[in-house]
Design brief:
By secondary structure, this protein is mainly α. The chain contains 29 helices and 17 strands. Strands 9-10-11 form a three-stranded antiparallel sheet. The radius of gyration is 35 Å and the shape is globular. This is Transposition regulatory protein TnpB. It comes from Alkalihalophilus pseudofirmus (strain ATCC BAA-2126 / JCM 17055 / OF4) (Bacillus pseudofirmus). One of its GO terms (biological process) is DNA recombination.
Length: about 700
């Protein structure tokens, strides 16, 4: 049942509901605890066809905006002859106002103008129309644009950002009214609608979605073949509820699948299903995809468009067969779509795209010119390495103080890590504290149900964080305006993920070890952190490579040093492995750095020779404390043993860590003793025997 059928079936209750909802409004009152909603029983907006600014000025929701207004209009007037359309339009504007989708300026200026033109248009072109939703919207919208042009009203303007022609607000108004009324007046369950809103699915069914992204709707009306529309809805519903599909992937499917169906039914216009779909049909579709992909390339030739389209078609056809749909192909999908149809992925460059210091300097020199809502996001990204999506989902309880030090608490969506903690400095903590305070003062259950600190309190993103794309746009607008350039003198193009790479590189170059950086970045494995190995300690790396060019040395079977590869060029991959192994896997000890200890393969790490060679006891000839270097030796042993235990625990080798703890205790006891000025002898009875022999 579509929306119009649903509306006609319950028409009396439908308009009774509109009448009821226009008989009261929700006033938002500020209290010490934040915003509180009060229900005000007042039929003013139902009974009056002219809404005055004086009335709105008495309602807390609009007081501040009206006090700052820069327009002179005092009334919003509804000029609709049909009483049902009048009721629909009042309800439409009422919801725009009280849902914070329209500002006061939009309501009294652009909105008022649009309402006037739409009333005139409907009276002239559709005098017998009883409901906006009874329009054939595509045909009506074309007549609307022609009518505007006939009246000398401009329908297009130039986009300020991209300088291409775009429709003016009045041109979009009729379709906007129709679409919004369709949503507002559609009281069916979300799964039954032609357009799904994930915010409703999330609230009722717990369907997860990324709040920082913009795609919140799936429009199934783009599927022209009605039987397939229902099958796609059934298939996606099943997968979303079983948590077998993300909302983002569903959005991608709805980009590709309708195009696939359109192509097939253009090839076979008499078909009612896909029962006879064959390999030859899909080969023609492949030709189209590659042709479109070649036309849409700008800089580099990427096959992502082709791969996504093939994967979407494959999953869809498999889904039809899984649910035993009568519309499914008779042939197994594996006989229609082959594995090698998907283009091979090009190997990604291992080069980490971090922000050069010269660019960072220019950015921070001009950061006060950046949009004030974006500035704290840049600072958080730079100082914590959080992904922008995780930064935008920070909540009012994200700041924690432990032992006088601040921690930023966030959930890391990509690795499903809850309450991830990152140490931050007091300066950033002060910024976040202000954001939390502002969020608490301006939030309620309606406009910020998740208690975000980077949230839109009104408009189409109401209750959701800022758009991640908008953050990037603001940042790159600043780069253009202030001419932030790279080493070639070209305007630098920022990507928010570069701040994460920059954070990692700076941490490593400042002396942090790989495992600490892995924890701070919430990487699920050390391999993810390894991508930064090439960038680490560039000065030391150059010294290392220069030394290597002089030739490598190794110990032979007799323990003697022997030079290998003298005067030969050492391959870059060998240098890379040697350097990475030293930085990632080696642990310092008094003799150099060791790879075996960290893997638990060194028996001497647990049983140091001089302290255990005598049946597990120290050597009988060992004496400690006489040499002026002994304290330094044991300080180093304590330090390297502590580090070994830390790394072993991080790797889950608790059994080996426990053995090393015994060693650490032994080293620490010896160090404490000799630091107090005392001496230790291996065996006193051995000394006595020697003394006895000397007296003979």
């Amino acid at each position: 049942m579509n929306l119009n059928e649903h509306k006609r079936e319950t028409e009396d209750s439908f308009y009774q509901r509109l009448t009821k909802e226009l008989s009261f409004y929700i006033e938002k009152v500020k209290t010490k605890e934040g915003l509180t909603n009060l229900t005000v029983n007042d039929p003013y907006f139902l009974l009056n066809d002219t809404w005055s600014i004086e009335k709105l000025a008495t309602i807390e929701n609009f007081k501040d905006a009206i006090a700052k207004k820069k327009f002179n209009r005092t009334n919003v007037i509804f000029r609709f002859s049909n009483p049902q359309i009048l009721l629909e339009m009042k309800y439409f504007v009422f919801r725009k106002m009280f849902d914070d989708n329209w500002t006061i300026n939009t309501l009294f200026v652009q909105g008022n103008y649009n309402l006037k033109q739409l009333g005139l248009f409907l009276d002239e072109k559709f005098p017998r129309l009883n409901s906006i939703l009874d329009l054939d919207i595509e045909k009506a919208n074309k007549r609307w644009m022609m009518w505007l042009q006939e009246k000398g009203i401009g329908t297009h303007t130039k986009d300020k950002r991209y300088e291409n022609p775009v429709k003016r607000p009045v041109t979009r108004f009729l379709k906007s009214v129709y679409n919004d009324l369709s949503k507002l007046l559609d009281f069916r369950d979300e799964w039954e609608k032609e357009v799904w809103d994930v915010r409703n699915l999330n609230q009722k069914y717990g369907i997860y979605y990324n709040h920082a992204r913009s795609h919140v709707r799936l429009d199934f009306t783009v599927v022209k073949q009605i039987p397939f529309r229902f099958e796609i809805q059934k298939w996606l519903k099943y997968r979303l509820l079983s948590n077998d599909l993300t909302w983002g992937t569903a959005v991608n499917y709805m980009v590709s699948i309708p195009k696939f169906l359109d192509f097939i039914f253009e090839l076979e216009p008499t078909w009612k299903n896909l029962n006879e779909l064959s390999r030859s049909h899909f080969e023609e579709y492949l030709d189209l995809l590659h042709k479109e992909n070649a036309e849409r390339q700008r800089v580099t030739y990427s096959y992502e468009y082709v791969t996504k389209a093939i994967s979407s078609a494959n999953k869809f056809l498999e889904g039809l067969q899984t649910i035993n749909s009568p519309l499914a192909p008779k042939k197994d999908v594996r006989m229609i779509i082959f594995r090698y149809d998907r283009p091979k992925k090009k190997k990604k460059s291992k080069k980490v795209k971090y922000i050069p210091d010269s660019v960072l300097q220019q950015l921070f020199d001009n950061i006060n010119y950046l949009h004030e809502e974006v500035q704290p996001i840049i600072w958080i990204s730079f100082k914590t390495g959080l992904r922008v999506s995780d930064t935008l989902r920070l909540t009012q309880d994200c700041l924690l103080r432990i032992d006088g030090k601040y921690q930023l608490i966030s959930d890391v969506t990509k690795t499903c890590l809850k309450d991830h903690s990152i140490p931050i400095d007091d300066e950033l903590a002060d910024v976040i504290a202000v954001l939390i305070k502002n969020s608490k003062e301006n939030s309620n259950e309606e406009n910020n149900p998740q208690n975000y600190i980077f949230v839109r309190y009104r408009g189409v993103r109401k209750g959701r964080p800022y758009s991640a794309d908008w953050i990037g746009e603001r940042l790159n607008s600043l780069a253009k305006e202030k001419k932030i350039v790279d080493e070639k003198g070209e305007i630098y193009h920022f990507r928010m993920h570069q701040f994460r790479h920059t954070y990692a590189v700076k941490m490593l170059n400042s002396g942090a070890d790989f495992f600490t950086v892995q924890q701070l970045l919430a990487h699920s494995s050390p391999e993810m952190t390894l991508v930064y190995a090439r960038l680490l300690d560039t000065t030391k790396r150059k010294v290392f490579e220069e030394a290597m060019k002089q030739g490598l040395f190794s110990f032979d079977v007799n323990g003697e040093m022997k030079q290998i590869k003298p005067n030969e060029e050492i391959p870059e991959d060998i240098l890379e492995v040697l350097w990475r192994e030293q930085k990632l896997s080696a642990v310092d000890n008094p003799y150099g750095t060791c790879h075996a200890r960290i893997n638990g393969n060194c028996p001497h790490a647990e049983e140091p020779p001089c302290l255990t060679c005598n049946g597990g006891s120290p050597c009988k000839d060992l004496a400690i404390g006489f040499s002026e270097l002994d304290i330094q030796k044991y300080e180093l042993l304590v330090k390297t043993s502590s580090r070994t235990i830390e790394v072993l625990e991080q790797r889950g080798r608790q059994d080996i860590a426990e053995k090393n703890k015994k060693n650490l205790e032994r080293y620490q006891n010896i160090l404490n003793t000799i630091q107090s000025g005392k001496f230790i002898f291996g065996r006193l009875d051995s000394i006595k025997r020697k003394q006895g022999l000397a007296n003979v």
